[in-house]
Amino acid sequence: NAGVTQTPKFQVLKTGQSMTLQCAQDMNHEYMSWYRQDPGMGLRLIHYSVGAGITDQGEVPNGYNVSRSTTEDFPLRLLSAAPSQTSVYFCASSYESLPGGGEQYFGPGTRLTVT
Amino acid sequence: RKEVEQDPGPFNVPEGATVAFNCTYSNSASQSFFWYRQDCRKEPKLLMSVYSSGNEDGRFTAQLNRASQYISLLIRDSKLSDSATYLCVVNIDGGGGADGLTFGKGTHLIIQP
């Protein structure tokens, strides 16, 4: 199993550009989520999904869209990039059935810089 | 407001020593607890879950104190490879979704030779 994969690993955008961060998992997990990690801020939840066709907002959803058309894929779209979106983005997945949230499996991250 | 607090450190500890750090949480309804490890410029990975009775995995021991609302992580006989940031994670609703999780900002541990 490849686990959780993310592309690209690094990206530089200009203010106002849009792009999609890709995330895929091959573990048949129902739950998937996107986090951003900033220095001194810890991991903050952007959007999450509890299954194909179902998504919801997390703590910091503004400026981002998601969709979940398949169990495997959960892309994150930046609509109009802003310097405040410079961050490291992690995608994660987990089993639905484990109590207590179970183990979150994280992808390797995408380092995004917006100039 | 969900809050999980950790001492950011860094904790500078000589190799072979024992080190412990705590994490406090504010929501008394929190149901499950975890320690994650994050190496520099890498993704977080689960180190261990924290059970009510406490649990041990090799050199690592995790404890939960519900009355005082904190969890702890003890590392014995520390190795250079233990150098990392340790994230405290609390699940409020007990479900499998990410919306119930709150991550602490992490404690940075440096093991010195």
Written account of the structure:
The complex is a heterodimer of chains A (115) and B (113). With 115 residues, chain A is an all-beta fold. Chain A is 0% helix and 50% strand. Chain A has no helices and 11 strands. In chain A, a hairpin with a 3-residue loop joins strand 4 and strand 5. Chain A is globular, with a radius of gyration of 13 Å. Chain B has 113 residues and is mostly beta strands. In chain B, strands 2, 4, 5, 9, 10 and 11 form a 6-stranded mixed β-sheet that branches. A 5-stranded antiparallel β-sheet of chain B has the order 1-3-8-7-6, with no helix packed on it. Chain B is globular and about 40 Å long. The model of chain B has no long low-confidence stretch (mean pLDDT 91). At the A-B interface, strand 4, strand 5 and strand 9 of A face strand 4, strand 5 and strand 9 of B.
Chart the SSEs and their pairings.
The complex is a heterodimer of chains A (115) and B (113).
Chain A: E1 4-7, E2 10-13, E3 19-25, E4 31-38, E5 42-51, E6 54-57, E7 64-66, E8 76-78, E9 87-94, E10 105-106, E11 110-114
Parallel strand pairs in A: 2-11
Antiparallel strand pairs in A: 1-3, 3-8, 4-5, 4-9, 5-6, 7-8, 9-10, 9-11
Chain B: E1 4-6, E2 11-14, E3 19-25, E4 32-38, E5 44-50, E6 55-57, E7 60-65, E8 70-75, E9 84-91, E10 101-103, E11 107-112
Parallel strand pairs in B: 2-11
Antiparallel strand pairs in B: 1-3, 3-8, 4-5, 4-9, 6-7, 7-8, 9-10, 9-11
